[in-house]
Amino acid sequence: MPGGRRCEAWELLQRLLEATRARIPAVAAELELPPAQCQVLRRLPARRAITMGELARSLACDASNVTGLVDRLESRGLVERRASREDRRVKAIALTTQGCQVRARLVARLSKPPDPIARLSEADRDRLTAILRKVVG
User: Fold this and answer.
1) How many distinct structural domains can be found in the chain?
2) Per-residue pLDDT of the chain in tens (137 residues, 90 and over written 9)
3) SS3 91
4) Would you say residue 135 lies in a domain?
5) Range of the domain at 26
6) Residue 123 within any structural domain of the chain
7) Contact 91, 84 (CB under 8 A)
8) pTM of the entire structure?
9) Rounded Cα distance, 41 and 39, in Å
10) Most buried of 12, 23, 85, 86 (most Cβ within 10 A)?
11) Helix 35-43 crosses helix 52-59 at what angle (to 10 degrees)?
């Protein structure tokens, strides 16, 4: 940072993220899934299969960690393994119909803004949105 000054905006964003992180286990409990499995469901596209490698990269973890998560989701009937179209030796993961429904519920619940954001006026939310669009690019 210029001049070694701390960045209050970043510190405040971190506090907001930490405060809202507790929502994920609560939503996961409603869906009767562990939070890690919910993260996998969120990363899977609703209408196409992705390889285990793509899934691992999107979760920023090793593919070996994804295997167990996918195994458990598959045993619940939420995902299925398929041969990849590009390389039949590679396994791709796709949501089942039930998996799409559970994912939709998960996304809907997590898309609701947390209380600190919901309490803002519409004008403040619009300003925050504009600033975050600049930051995200």
Assistant:
1) 1
2) 554 567 888 898 898 888 888 888 999 999 999 999 999 999 999 989 999 899 999 999 988 889 999 999 999 999 999 887 788 888 899 999 999 999 999 999 998 998 889 999 999 999 999 999 999 88
3) strand
4) no
5) 7-112
6) no
7) yes
8) 0.81
9) 5
10) 23
11) 120
Report yes or no: 55 and 44 within 8 Å, Cβ to Cβ: yes
Of 57, 93, 59, 50, which Cα lies nearest the Cα of 73? 93
For residue 124 the two structure tokens come to 């403040």
CATH code at 40? 1.10.10.10
Whether the Cβ atoms of residue 66 and residue 74 lie closer than 8 Å to each other: no
Residue 55 covered by a domain: yes
The H or E element that residue 81 is part of is strand 79-83
H or E element that contains 51:
strand 50-51
Copy the structure tokens of residue 49: 């299969």
| Category of 112 on φ-ψ map: left (φ > 0), alpha (ψ -120 to 50) or beta | beta
To which H or E segment does residue 83 belong? strand 79-83
DSSP three-state, residue 120: coil
